[in-house]
Amino acid sequence: MKQFQLTKREIEIIGLIGQSYTNEEVADKLFLSIATVKTHRNNINLKLGINKPADLVKFALENGLA
């Protein structure tokens, strides 16, 4: 994960998304606002160079985060 420069929170969010949590569910689980979760997801997408939710789930599964 170091090569992607993901934060601990971003890794945590990837894991939850990989488990099919919605933005709202992630926000509730982590006591964050939905806007904060969306910002994290945007940052994750930029760091990983992806733009589809399915690609993020695939990344989570391939890297043992889900």
Structural description of this entry:
With 66 residues, this protein is an all-alpha fold. It is built from four helices and no strands. The protein has helices at 8-18, 23-30, 34-48, 53-62. Helix 1 packs across helix 3 (34-48), helix 1 (8-18) crosses helix 4 and helix 2 crosses helix 3 (34-48). It is globular and about 25 Å long. The relative contact order is 0.21. The model has no long low-confidence stretch (mean pLDDT 94).
Which helices and strands occur, and which strands form pairs?
Elements: H1 8-18, H2 23-30, H3 34-48, H4 53-62
Helix pairs in contact: 1-3, 1-4, 2-3
List keywords for this structure.
66 residues; globular; 4 helices; mainly alpha
For the CA atoms, what is the radius of gyration?
Answer: 11 Å
Q: State the total count of DSSP E strands.
A: 0
What is the terminal-to-terminal distance?
14 Å
The oligomeric state of the chains shown is single chain
Report the structural category.
Answer: mainly alpha
Q: How helical, in percent, are the residues?
A: 55-70%
Mean pLDDT: 94
How would a textbook summarize the main sheet? Answer: none
Beta-strand level of the residues, as a percent range? under 5%
Shape category: globular
**What string gives the helices and strands in order?**
HHHH
Low-confidence stretches: none
- Helical element count? 4
